[in-house]
Please model this.
Amino acid sequence: MKINSHLYAVILAGGSGTRFWPLSRELYPKQLLRILGDQTLIQQTLRRTLSCVPTSRTFVVTNRSQVDMVTMQLGGWERGIQENIVVEPEGRNTAPAIAMAAIKLVVQDPAAVMLVLPADHVIKGTRKFTEAVKLGTKFAGDGHLVTLGIRPTAPETGYGYIKPNMRQQLEGQGTLKGYRVRRFIEKPDVPKARTMLRSGGYLWNSGIFLWKASSILDELALYQPRLLRVIRKVWRLQNNDAGLSDNVIKIYGQLPSMPIDTAVMEQTSKAVVVPVDFVWSDIGSWSALGDVASKTKAGNVVNGNIVDLGSENSVLFGNHRLVATIGLKDMVIVDTPDATLVCPKSRAQDVKGVVDILKKRNAREQLEHQSVFRPWGSYTTLDAGDGYKVKRLTVRPGAKLSLQRHRKRREHWVVVRGKAKVTCGDQRLELTIGQSLDIPKAINHRIENPWPETLEIIEVQHGPYLGEDDIVRLQDMYGREIRS
Amino acid sequence: MKINSHLYAVILAGGSGTRFWPLSRELYPKQLLRILGDQTLIQQTLRRTLSCVPTSRTFVVTNRSQVDMVTMQLGGWERGIQENIVVEPEGRNTAPAIAMAAIKLVVQDPAAVMLVLPADHVIKGTRKFTEAVKLGTKFAGDGHLVTLGIRPTAPETGYGYIKPNMRQQLEGQGTLKGYRVRRFIEKPDVPKARTMLRSGGYLWNSGIFLWKASSILDELALYQPRLLRVIRKVWRLQNNDAGLSDNVIKIYGQLPSMPIDTAVMEQTSKAVVVPVDFVWSDIGSWSALGDVASKTKAGNVVNGNIVDLGSENSVLFGNHRLVATIGLKDMVIVDTPDATLVCPKSRAQDVKGVVDILKKRNAREQLEHQSVFRPWGSYTTLDAGDGYKVKRLTVRPGAKLSLQRHRKRREHWVVVRGKAKVTCGDQRLELTIGQSLDIPKAINHRIENPWPETLEIIEVQHGPYLGEDDIVRLQDMYGREIRS
Model:
């Protein structure tokens, strides 16, 4: 029951992977990263909402390209959160995602109150967060559209600001109060940000909202009738077809990308802000990480295999590979197995420019990591040459790859850890460490790991074409597309 | 015949891999690097000496850990320079190496003149170099100990300086002259370097020498009698035992590390300097590379897969991996498959400190690269996990690995390029692309590539111990140590 039996959490997990490149990639955005603590940002977000709402009332909105990873990180296949994951055909910013979730909730519970929050923010102070949600839930129940406002600590130009109407205070709880919103201010320039910071009368717009599902649908009907019509249509089609039909994908693709702030909040008369005092950051760039992560005496954020001589105030973010740094000041170094970023903190926002260049070049390093996650585990490309590719497949206990075949390549497997249950044509066999098997072209095959130890296989592929799309799936336990 | 039929080139190829880390490693020092142009520094040095001296009169002094690589880079196994490679048990700076070469030469040709030069310098202007060597050879023939002096262009603190006695000029050729040396000045501090630069009366000590083998032996007998005695003893032992016996290694290990400059040149009365005007650098650090390499308009030295936005005057040295740089100024970035260095140019000398730390940690990244060269080709470690390792072996046309076996590991081979001739116990077989073979523990095996195409094999090793030293060599075509 927790705060209120009509309260539902809606985690928006559709972010793109631009600003934290090369640790984030298009198919592996910020919310999936473990950049602060042991859990990824979306895992931390889920943990946070679970202090307010049980799993059964927690929904996650994400898009097709991220659904596998999001499900996996939230423990989906084991813990059954899978039914609560709402899949958009593709990301269209927050307004369509929120509309879709609101429709789903209002059908389920006409009195539903939604706690909407991005999956990739950092918040420190779960108790304070819970209290703010509690008060916000009360206001939301009264028909207000509530946003949580953060007291500014710096003249940030990356955030929107909110001016509360201090004369229109709502009844609060303890030191927490609510105010009607006088107006929303879009991301300012530095002088304007400084003025607002100095005046003390402004708050950062956290992007964390509370409202009744019916309230936000009313406001969407008022201010974005076309958007709402399209989303209702998508909802009906999805319920009929039980999935993302080509029609749904087409309709969705024509929607404008629209944040809920401009779609509704800046126009509605029902906006209320609750100024909160937990530590919050949307960590919008590598340099922002320095504001929330723990630091060495010299002011460095250090992660991974770094050998440093006398650097200061820098973000030194590596992993297994060795990175040596000497005498850096206010720099950002991010190292991943296949790409490294080096820039001054002051230019960290410009990583977007690098990502744009890579995108134009169709560079794989923009799209995905050297290790790619799948519902059954992951694969890592170890080597690729003319006509061959070497991968390490890591198969989780209990997992099963799809029954598949390839048109253009043959494969050779060597088990290096655990034990594999293998289908190859009509054969069914078990391979233990050191044993190997040839998979000829066009033969149906499958790897399973029904045992409790992780299975690792070195796969050597041969053929004139070795792309990931040369795969004919015949059966899949994760509901992935079947082509035959 | 070229300049003089008694002229011999002695290339000193014993440098350590500290200052160009991570591109250089302890077992892969600067002279082996391709940092300027298509050839490595030692290859460029050989090409330069070949303009003065034929191959048959070119000797290379190196040490045990580098002899395979040096031989390979100089085309040894094909072109027969192998007999001209003089192997020290380990590097002991230039004096012992020069003494060893001088003894060898004086035995062969009592009138031998030695052109001594380090393998890892950059010189631009082969014609001017040849002219200087010609004049130096003449002076050397007259009994002088000749050094080539470089006109300073900056207040360098990394070089030794020479003050020529302008009143004791030797007969020259054209604009080239020789002068008796008034004195040698050790590496100065900045003010002293500035003063010498301004005065115009000083030269940089290039470390390139010409003298009769008998002259340098006479001077060594005079100033370093103990050193010479030890080297003569080593020489006799090596000739008797035909190689590096444990005794030789022990004796050599007790020698002090001594440069010829302090051992002889600073003490002798026979020193002569020839001021030359070719472009010269010992490229003593990554920042020095900027002085000799070609640069972009923005002043960057760029190599490899770099995506840059607006950096200036920086060394951006990568290879296959993607490195993205934004807005750097006067920085050095060096990227290799397993280690990356980032530092300001002004701190490039401090890479030595990083190497020291790595050495203390026994970090593999200090010692060798992820790809390791062998006489038959190279291997690259692609992956390593608990109880297994994956390598790619690249076998040159005509090459043959040793006949060997392992005590602790079994291996599994998959051919991915070319064709392999394989011995495994009593079997002899050929493997083509996609074919695989298990090599059980303790079974003698060998890979050969008698064909003109390069052979590539993916090797998956299994076992409780996978170190390189678990190898029993039974036959080897490259004369490497046989253990049985």
